[in-house]
Amino acid sequence: IGSREKVEAGEVIFSTRRKIDGVDDRNLEDAVYAFGFGNRCSYVKPFGAGHINETYAVYMPGEDGDELSYVLQRINSNVFKDPQGVMENIFGVTEYLRNVIRQEGGDPDRETLSYIKTKSGCNYFEDSTGQPWRCYNFIPDSECYQLVEEPEQFYQSGSSFGHFLKQLGNYPADRLNETIPDFHNTVKRFRAFETALQRDLKDRAASCRPEIRFILEREKDCEVLVKKQEEGVLPLRVTHNDTKLNNILFDSKTGRGLCIIDLDTIMPGLAANDFGDSIRFGAATAEEDEKNLDLVHFDLELYELYVKGYLKETRDVLTEEEIRSLPWGARLMTLECGIRFLTDYLQGDTYFKTDYPEHNLVRARTQFRLVDEMEQHFDEMEKIIQKYAAGE
Ligand code: ADP
Ligand code: GN1
Ligand code: MG
Fold this sequence. Notes:
By secondary structure, the protein is of the alpha+beta class. The chain has helices at about 5-10, 10-15, 25-35, 85-105, 110, 150-165, 185-200, 210-215, 225-230, 270-280, 300-315, 320-345, 360-375, 380-390, and strands at about 45, 55-60, 65-75, 115, 125, 130-135, 140-145, 235-240, 250, 255-260, 265-270. Strands 1, 2, 3, 4, 5 and 6 form a six-stranded antiparallel β-sheet that branches. It has a three-stranded antiparallel β-sheet with strand order 7-9-10. Strands 8-11 form a two-stranded antiparallel ribbon. A hairpin with a 5-residue loop joins strand 5 (about 125) and strand 6 (about 130-135). Helix 6 (about 150-165) packs parallel to helix 11. The chain starts with a helix and ends with a helix. Bound molecules: adenosine-5'-diphosphate, 2-acetamido-2-deoxy-1-O-phosphono-alpha-D-glucopyranose and magnesium ion. The site of magnesium ion (MG) has 4 residues, from loops.
């Protein structure tokens, strides 16, 4: 409110700065200063395609002109109620990873994110409206994809997320804050959906009857992994919980998986869920919000490539039960994500960023198409797991 006037009237604010193109957000300005870039900053641009946080690229003057140097993010405080807890997890995990990477002979500056503290030494900045901001180094010569472009990328992705699980194998899980309670409790996600359906706050239920039915018919499925975890059959590990293809950076020169990003949801969880969320997003032949369902398929070959990369890293770490649970992880993470999109649609789009009114419905439909195809190919999915579990 009034931020544009403040920026325009406030040449005072900019008097020492070269220019910040298109910035009309006073809080963004303050964040740029809080992290110490102030008058050295060349400009700031919106960045990335995440559904939750607001991401900006910060450009600084370099030898060959302006360089993308930092990533600045406004944390979505509607989603993350305890930003301090989120940032404690991130600082703890990235510091730990830096040591592990050093021991492996890797480059900690490229293989994990380096978060930056504010000028006053805090791990995030709270702006005048109470919104939290955090900042990390941009990793140069890296790429991020919304869709698998070369099959090899998905093999790399499996190998990177598998390696990540191993790297954090001895991280003290009791040091982690639960940043979103019950994040992948599919049973609770189902219940939340039922409540949203019953309330039908925005009168949208009539516009998505087939999708509602699709979920209701799968109530029993939602229990499969939750039960196994509660019974102690599946162990909790330190997991990432948001293992989309666009949460991994690839090395531009070698094409190899380089760095796992978006560490907001690192919490104790099931290996199957991390595996499954990657498959949900990356083994699809179209983007998550493709409107033409004829283009949306579950690609078994991509699935196999991911399995190959993932199990190469983890087959000696995961228990037999965990390995057996992986195909269910794919099915349930996809179902759960569809449930979450449809719940948000029914509630009036208060969680995920949307570009148009049916966006969440469109997203839910792609997920259910994928679930349907996974169900049809479930035997093959299990066989592929067995093949690579045996070390092929
Ligand atoms: P969100 O929680 O909103 O998904 P992310 O931390 O995943 O936030 O960042 C959003 C997007 O910004 C990423 O999916 C990626 O496309 C891009 N991004 C973030 N950090 C980097 C980076 N260091 N290099 C390249 N792209 C990045
Ligand atoms: C969100 O933040 P982003 O875009 O990486 C969401 C994930 C969903 C995903 C669906 C904290 O991930 O759980 O699977 O959208 N993150 C959160 O694309 O809810
Ligand atoms: Mg992300």
